[in-house]
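Quick review question:
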């Protein structure tokens, strides 16, 4: 009998600056930095460098350490075009549910803000 695959789930420690294995930019594979996501479930994560290069986003100004940049329509924002801050709820090897943009708990958001930009 085939053993069912056990998805490895990891609780993210929002009080730390550590990131789950696999929390990496899908272009340069850098880890332990601030990442953005385009989908709530897929792990298509991008670092600030590759958001810019992807060109899908509107031209972005200088992104600050806290992940925000100035947008002349919305003011300071952490959204980049259709990318949102990638804040995982529980990290799962198969599928990682990220917090919906408007539902990110404060401690989880602060964890993301503390991650280095580059
Ligand atoms: Zn990258």
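Suggested answer, residue by residue:
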């Amino acid at each position: 009998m085939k053993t069912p695959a056990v998805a490895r789930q990891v609780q993210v420690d929002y009080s730390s600056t550590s990131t789950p294995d696999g929390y990496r930019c899908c272009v340069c594979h850098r880890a332990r930095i601030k990442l953005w996501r385009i989908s709530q479930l897929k792990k298509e994560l991008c670092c600030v460098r590759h958001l810019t290069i992807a060109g899908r986003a509107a031209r972005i100004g200088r992104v600050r350490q806290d992940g925000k940049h100035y947008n002349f329509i919305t003011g300071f924002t952490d959204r980049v075009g259709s990318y949102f801050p990638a804040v995982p709820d529980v990290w799962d090897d198969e599928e990682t549910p990220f917090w919906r943009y408007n539902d990110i708990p404060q401690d989880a958001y602060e964890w993301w803000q503390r991650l280095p930009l580059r």
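Why it works: Residues 18-118 form one domain. Residues 25, 27-28, 30, 47, 49-50 surround zinc ion (CB under 6 Å).
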